[in-house]
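Discussion board: Methods & Data

I've been asked by a reviewer to show the raw model output for two of the constructs in my manuscript, not just the figures. I'm not sure how much to include, so I'm pasting the format here to get opinions. Each protein appears as its amino acid sequence followed by a line of C-alpha cells. Is this the kind of thing reviewers expect to see in a supplement, or should I convert it first? Here is construct A:
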Amino acid sequence: MASNATCTPDDTFKYTLYTSVYSMVFIVGLGSNCVALYVLRCSLKLRNETITYMTNLAVSDLLFVFTLPFRIFYYVTRDWPFGNLLCNISGTLFLTNMYGSILFLTCISVDRFLAIVHPFRSRMLRTKKKAIIVCVAVWVTVLTGSVPATFLQTTKGTANQTKTCFENFSSDTWKTFLSKIVIFIEIVGFFIPLLLNLFCFSMVLKTLKQPITLSRSKFNKKKILRMIVVHFLTFICCFVPYNVTLVMYSLVRTGTVRNCFVVTTVKTMYPITLCFAVSNCCFDPIVYYFTSETFQNSIKRKSKSLRLDSDFSEALHQSFPTKNLRLISVNSESTV
C-alpha cells in the first residue's frame, strides 16, 4: 500500500478542462436560463406549482452562472486576486446550485408522480402555496449545508506569490470540517433525492403500463414517457457520477484511502465528473421544455411570432424596391 505522501498524481489538466467547460456553461447557461426565466415569469399566464419549482431552479442556476467569470479567470491565471469573501461566495453558490438543482428537480419529479399516479388524491397537495413553502424549505436546507463553507479561510498563498481559491485544503481541514459538510450534503442533498427520483420514475412507468389508467386520463403516453426519461437522464448523468466520486474524493483527502492507484483514479475522475455536474445549468431549460406543456406552447408562440415578424420585414423589404422603381418610372415619363 503506497502512502498518500509518496503518491502525487498530476491533475493539472483540470485547469484547462475547467476553463473550457465553464466558458461553455457560462455562455449557454446564461442565455438559456435568462430565456427560461423570462418565459416562466413574464410569458406564462398560468403559474402552477411546477412553474414555481422551475422558477426557483432557474434562479439557482443563474446565481451560479454569474460567478463563473471569476472562476474562469482563476483557472486561466491560476491566481485568485478577488479576496477571501468572494472566493467563499463563489464556493457557497456552487454548493447551493448543485444541491438546490438536485432538490428542485426532485420536487418536479415528485409533483409529476403525484399528478400521474394519484391525480385526484393529490389535488390538495399540489397547490402553488404549498409549492412556495417547499421551495423555502429547499433554500434553507441547501444554505444550511453550504453556508458553513464561508467560515473557512478558502484563499491560500503559494510559493510564487499567487493565491488559490477553494482547493488544496489540508488533510486536517478535511477531517475536522469538510468531511462533515460532505456527509450532510451527500445524505440530504443526494442519496435521499436519488431514492425519491428512482421511486417516482418506476411508479410512473408502472402506471403508464396500465391501459385502464391511460384511458381514464387525458395524458399523452409518448409525451409523459419523453418527459420522465429526459428528467431522469438529466439527474443521473449530471449528478450521480460527481457525487459518487465526491465520496471517494473525501476518503482520499482525509487519508482513509491511501492506495496509490485509487488515489490517482479518484483525482483524475473528480474534475471530469465535476464538469458533468456543472453542465446541469445548460440541461435544466431542456427539462423545463419537456416537463411543462405550458412552457412548450409559450416557446412555440414566441418562435412563431419571431418568424412572422421576420417574414413581414422581408416582404416589406422586397416590396419597397419595386414600389420605388415604379415611382422612378412614372417620374421619368412625366418629365419626358
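Construct B, same format:
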Amino acid sequence: MIRKYITEKRSWLLLLAVLQLIIIFVAYVDAAIPLLPVLYIVLLNVLLCLAFVFLRYSKETRFYRSLEAWDQTYDLHAVIEPGSPLERIVHEAVIAQTDRYKRESSANYQLLESEKDELLSWIHEVKTPLTAMQLMIERLPDETLQRQLMYEWLRIHHLLDQQLHQKRIPFMRNDLFIENVSLEPVLNKEIRALKSWCISKGIGFDVELEVEEVLTDGKWLAFMLRQLLTNAVKYSAASDILIRSGEKDGHTVLTIEDSGQGIDPRDLPRIYDKGFTSSRGRQDGAATGMGLYLTRQVAEPLLISIHAASVPGEGSIFTLTFPRENDFQRITGM
C-alpha cells in the first residue's frame, strides 16, 4: 500500500523536490546568498516533508486499506467511513453499485425460481401422459414393437427424471431424511424399471448383499443407483451386472460391476465433469454427459464417496462408500 501511496503523491513530491533544487540553484548562482545556511534550510524542509508524508500516510490510506480488505460482498460494514470528500465520492459510488447489484441479483433469483417452478410443474404434468403411454405400450400384441417403444419410452422417462432432480439438487440439503435404508427393495425397484431394456439386450443381474442396510436418504440413493444402473445397462450386452455390498474399514461399500465397453483411462478423471461424454459415448450418440455428474452432485451432501475403475473392453466397477453414522453430524439440519 505504501508504494501505491507514493505513486499517488508522486506529483506533489516531485514539485517539492524541484522547489528545493531551485532554492539550492539560486543560492549557488547568487554569491550574495550564503550556500551553507540554504542547504541547512533545504535539509530541514526535506525532513519536515518526509515526516508529514509519514504521518499522513496512515490517515489517508485507512479508508482504502479497508476497501482493499473488503471481501466484495453486499455487506459494507467492513469498509470504514470516508474521511475526505474524494473518499466520500468513492464510498457513495460503491454503495450505489452494491445496491444495484442487490436489486439485479434479487430479480434474477426470482426469475430463476419462477423458471424452475414452471419446469418442475411441466415435468410433473408430462409424467401423466407418459404413464398412460406405458400402459398402452404394454398392451401391444407385437413384442418387437413393444420392446422398441418401451426402450424409447424409458429414455424419455430417464431424461425427464434427470432434469427433475437436477433442478432439485441445489436445495437437496433441505430435503434430506437420513435413516436406515434397506438396499434390496431400492435395488429391486430400479432393476424392475429397466426390465424391458435388459430383456431386449440379454442382461441379467446378480445381487449379493452382505450388508442389507445403509444410513442415507432413500430417495436420493435411488436416484444415484438409477444413474449407475442405467449406464451399466446402456454400455453392456448379453452379460450379468454384479451388485455386491460389504463392509470395509467400518464403512458399508456397494459395488456395481458390468462387463461392458469399459472406460478409456484418459477419460476416467473427467467422467464426473458436467457434459463430458467419453470417446465411446460420442460414438454411441445417446450419451448426455449428465448422469455421473448428477450422481457426484448428489453424493457430496450424502457424504458418499464414488470410485470408478475400468478396463476398456472388459467393463467398469463403480464403488459407493457410505459414511459412518457419526459423519452425518456434519450435515446441517438433520
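Answer (T.O., handling editor elsewhere):
This is acceptable in a supplement if you add a one-line summary per construct. For B, something like: The first strand starts at residue 179 and ends at 182.
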